[in-house]
Amino acid sequence: MKSYFIGILFLVAVPLVAQKQDTLQAIKVEAKRGKIQKSLIKATNTTVLSSKELLKAACCNLAESFETNPSIDVNFSDALTGTKQIKMLGLTSPYLLIAEENIPSVRGASQVYGLSFTPGTWVESIQITKGAGNVINGYESISGQINTELLKPAKEIPFYLNFYGSTDSRFELNTHVTQKVNPHWATTLLAHGNMRVAKKDMNDDGFLDNPLGRQINVMNRWQYANPEKGWVGFFNARFMRDEKQTGEMTFNPNTDKLTTQKWGSEIMTDRFDFSSKIGYVWKDMPYQSIGFQNAFSSHQQDSYFGLRTYKIKQNSFYSNLIFNSIIDNTLNKFATGLNFTSDDYNEFVFSNDVSRRDNSVGAFFEYTYDNADNFSIILGGRADLHNRLGFFVTPRLHGRYNPWKDAVLRFSAGRGKRSANIFAENQAFLGSNRNFNILDTNGKIYGLNPEIAWNYGFGFLQKFRLFGMQSDVAVDFYRTDFQNQVVVDVVQSAQEVNFYNLKGNSFANSLQVEFNTEIIKHLNFRSAYKYYDIQTDFQSGTMQRPLQAKHRFFTNLEFETHIKDKGQQWKFDFTLNWTGKQQLPNTAAQLPDFSPAFVVMNSQITRTFSSTFEMYTGVENLGNYKQKTAIVGANNPFGINFDSSVVYAPVFGQMIYAGLRFKVK
Fold first, then answer.
1. Residue 556's beta-bridge partner residues?
2. pLDDT tens-digit readout, 395-407
3. What is 264-327 written as a DSSP string?
C-alpha cells in the first residue's frame, strides 16, 4: 500500500504544487542546460544524458541509467543474477561499442556484468549515438555507441556523499573527495560500495529473486590542464571486486557447492584498470591537436552455475593516437591516426580450455565538411589487420541537413565487424541444463566466423513551440543487415543452445517515433513508440528473434517546482513502459510460445532542502507485475528442463527505495 500511496502522491501533488507556484515570492530562476540534449547541428544522431537525468530514477550503476530514456531498452538477462542487459535498435549490447571517455571499456569478458561496474554517481554525462559510430574508436560498433564521461576533477566539488537503501535489501554508499593540488593539477577519489544482505523469494519458486552480494569499487582520477601551453591530461587507476551468490533459498556454498544437494551459483570478479589520455593543442592553431590514449585492464571472473564451472581472465591493452587538423579552412576538418588492441583470454568452460590471444593494428582517416549553416557530412574509413579476422576495411558515413528552421535530417551508413565471445556473452544459459553445441568448426573464433553487418538509417528531428511551450518530435528508422552472424539458437530444442554461422538472412528493423513537450511551466512530458522487426534464418526456419517485443511504448512525466533562495525544491518523476508480447525460446511446452504484454511503472519524489542536501524516495515496478514462471523446471533444478534464462519481465516485483545526497561546495 505504501508504494501505491507514493505513486498517487505524485499524480496528486503535481497539479497542487503547480497551482501554488503563482503565490511564491522571491523565487530565484536559474538558467540551466537540459537534462537531455539533442543537437540540430551534429551530423551524428546523438542524445546526451546529463548527470541530472540520471538522478530521476534509482540509478545505482550504468546498467540502470537508461530507465527514463526511450533510446535504450532495458531487460533482465536471467532470473538468477539480477543483471540488466541493454538493447539498442533491437540488438543486444555486444553489437554496441561501449566506451568510457572514448576508450572501449565493456567488451569481451565484461560484456554481461561490465555495465554494473560503473557507479551512476561517477558519471558526468552519457552520449548515445544511434547507427554506425565513427571509425576513430574501432571497427566493432554495429548498432550504435554509448560513451560515458566521468566527473572531471578540475570542476568537481570538494566532497559528495550518496546513500541508498531499498526493500530488496540492497544498500549502497558513494563518496567523492576532490582536491585541487595546484593551478594545473586536480585529483578525485571515487569510492563505491554496495551489498545485498537478505534472501528474497517473492514469486515463491524456491530461488532467490536477486543474488546476495557485495561490491567494492575505487577509482583515483587525476587531471592536468595547462591552457597557456596547450597541454591537458587525464590519468585513472581503478580496482573493483564484485561477489554474487544466487540459487536456491536453502543453498549453502560451504556444503552444497558443485553438488546435487542444492542448486547454487557464485560469481567472483576482480578487475583492475589503468588509463591515460594526453592531449596537446597548438597555441596559434586551436583547430589542430594531437591526442594519445592508452588503457590496460585485467578482468578475472571465477564462477560456477550448479554443476557447471566457468572461468575467464582477460588482459587487454588499447592504444590510440589521434591527430586533428583542417584542410585549407575550418569548413574542412579531418582526424587521422593509428590504434592497437591486444586481448589475452584465458578461458575455461566446464574445465575445457578455449583460451586465445587476439591482436589488431589499424589506421583510420575521417573527413568532415561543415558549411557552418545547414549541411555537414562525415566520411570515415579504417583499415585493420587482425590475427584472426585478417585484413579488412571499415567504411562509415554520417550526414546532416537542416531543411528549415529548428529541423534536422540525419542519415548514416556503415559496416561493423566483431568476434563473438559466445560463452562470455551468453552466460545466462549457464544457469540452465541446456547442452552447448558449436555446429561449425572451420572458423578461427571457437570454430566460428566473425560477425559482419551493415547498418544504415535516418533520423528526423523537429523542434517547435506548442501553446508557447518547448516541444519536439522525432522519427528514427534504422536497419541492420548481417552478412554473417553467430546464430544463438534456443528455438530448435529445449535442451540445447546451438551456435553456428548464419546460413541465410538476418536483419533488424527499428522504428522509433518520439514526442516531447512542456505541458505547463516545469511539467515535462516525454513519449515514444518503438517498433521492431528482427528476423533470423534458424536451422528450423525463419523466425522472430526470441525475447524481443515487436511493440514498445514509453512515457515519462517530470515536474519540478521553482528553486527558492536557499535551494529548496520538489521534484517528481513518473515513468511507464509498456512491452508487447515476445516470442519465447523452446521450453518443451513448459511455457507458451509467446509472453503476455505487460506494463512497468516507476516513480520518484525528491526533496531538495538546500543546494547541498536532498533526500529522495521512489518505487520501481509500481504495479507489482511479476513474470509468472521465471525459472522453468525450478522444482527439479538438476533435471533436463531447468532453465533460468527465459526472462521477459520483472522477477522481483515491487521495490521501494530511499536515499540522500550531501555535497560540500
1. 526, 575
2. 999 999 999 999 9
3. EEEEEEEEEEEEEEEEEE-SS-TT-EEEEEEEEEEEEEEEEETTEEEEEEEEEEEEEEEEEEEE
